[in-house]
Design a protein that fits this description.
Elements lengths: L8 H20 L6 H11 L2 H6 L5 H17 L2 E4 L7 H4 L7 E6 L7 E6 L6 H16 L2 E5 L5 H10 L7 E4 L13 H10 L1 E4 L9 H14 L2 E4 L7 H11 L3 E4 L10 H9 L3 E2 L21 H9 L7 H8 L3 H13 L3 E4 L2 E4 L1
Parallel strand pairs: 3-4, 3-7, 4-5, 5-6, 7-8, 8-9
Antiparallel strand pairs: 1-2, 2-6, 10-11
Helix pairs in contact: 6-7, 7-8, 9-10, 12-14, 13-14
Length: 354
């Protein structure tokens, strides 16, 4: 037992904080103890110390928690309890929220206003670009974009936010430990988020995720966001589960429509049709100024006319020529210019908007 002078009050405080953290982690890392059961125990016994008096904690669990804390210190991982000012305010309001989150990166990001953005891993190029543009607009308005760092839509949302200037612009919620990069293809994205955003999880440091952990991750994404934007998503996808959580939490849901023939359109289109989501047409739905896109007003009037006619459904040169009243040779020249400017893309069936 050490003796603390007036000058050692800070050390005394740290010792007490670490003791409280150790006690709470012993409970939370015990088998079959989740947020709901932990809250029940707190209501019954009042404090973590009292709870532990009624639990049989093994030496192996004590060693495991000690190793987790040591590893967190080495990796600069913070433990944030729901009593901390850094704990996401929206998440704290939901019933049976995680008592402790681990976080790595710019912790101040957790204080920001936030919007959840999710969708399928198998997103279309147009769907990902559309989502990235909206995410960038939110980040440029100092609103953090929350997603799950999965391939496809999630990655596009994070990258869109990272394209904005400044830090504290995106929050990645992981199903495993905050130090476990999954999928490995997003390791570069993970490192970028650490530099300019924050990674969070309710799982132990070093934890390798299982299937059921992704549902809990989706719950946290919906809980942190003040609203949810859903892009392409199959009817039984994890993104639709996130939308269910968001609806249960009273969040406003926006859905981006897609072509009905595409299975990835079933999720957002069904929410719009049922009245459970608001039709989202882009960043202008949320901000008064026009969204930042490549300027086309300086292009020739004829090029603008063609660009206005091209959408997500491919159109051939002959069809475009008929629509705008030009011959094929004129159309070809103008299509080449638009393609070089990155505004359209040629596919087997014709041209589509990028």
């Amino acid at each position: 037992m050490g003796v603390f002078s007036c000058d050692s009050r800070a050390d005394d405080f740290i010792v007490r904080v670490m003791k409280n953290l150790f006690e709470r982690l012993l409970i939370l890392r015990s088998p079959k103890i989740g947020p709901a059961s932990y809250n029940t125990l707190r209501q019954r016994f009042g404090t973590d110390a009292e709870i532990l008096k009624h639990m049989d904690i093994s030496d192996s669990l004590r060693d495991s928690v000690s190793r987790e804390i040591d590893l967190a210190n080495k990796l600069n991982v913070a433990f944030i309890s729901d009593e901390d000012d850094l704990y996401p305010a929206n998440l704290k309001k939901i019933k049976n929220h995680p008592s402790i989150l681990t976080a790595r990166g710019h912790l101040e990001t957790l204080r920001c206003e936030s919007v959840a953005m999710v969708g399928t891993r198998h997103a279309t190029a147009n769907g990902m670009k559309f989502m990235a543009d909206i995410a960038r607009a939110f980040a440029e308005h100092d609103i953090a974009v929350v997603s799950g760092m999965a391939m496809g839509t999630d990655a596009a949302a994070h990258r869109g936010a990272l394209n904005a200037k400044g830090n504290t612009n995106t929050i990645a919620v992981l199903a495993g430990g905050v130090d476990y990069v999954w999928p490995i293809e997003n390791e570069g994205l993970y490192n970028e988020i650490l530099e300019r955003g924050v990674v969070v999880s309710d799982m132990p440091v070093g934890f390798i995720p299982k299937g059921t952990n992704f549902v809990q991750r989706n719950r946290i994404i919906a809980g942190i966001g003040e609203k949810l934007i859903l892009s392409e998503a199959d009817s039984n996808s994890g993104s639709m589960k996130t939308a269910e959580f968001a609806r249960a939490y009273g969040r406003t849901i926006y859905a981006i429509p897609s072509h009905p023939a595409d299975s990835r359109a079933v999720g957002p289109n069904s929410l719009i049709r049922s009245g459970n989501a608001i039709l989202c047409m882009g960043a202008e739905d949320f901000f008064t100024e026009k969204k930042s896109v490549k300027k086309i007003e300086k292009k020739a009037e004829s090029e603008n006319q063609i660009l206005d006619k091209i959408g997500t459904v491919p159109l051939s040169e002959s069809v475009l020529a008929e629509i705008v009243g030009k011959n094929i040779s004129e159309i070809k020249r103008e299509l080449v210019v638009l393609e070089l400017q990155g505004l359209i893309r040629k596919c087997d069936a014709g041209y589509v908007r990028v």
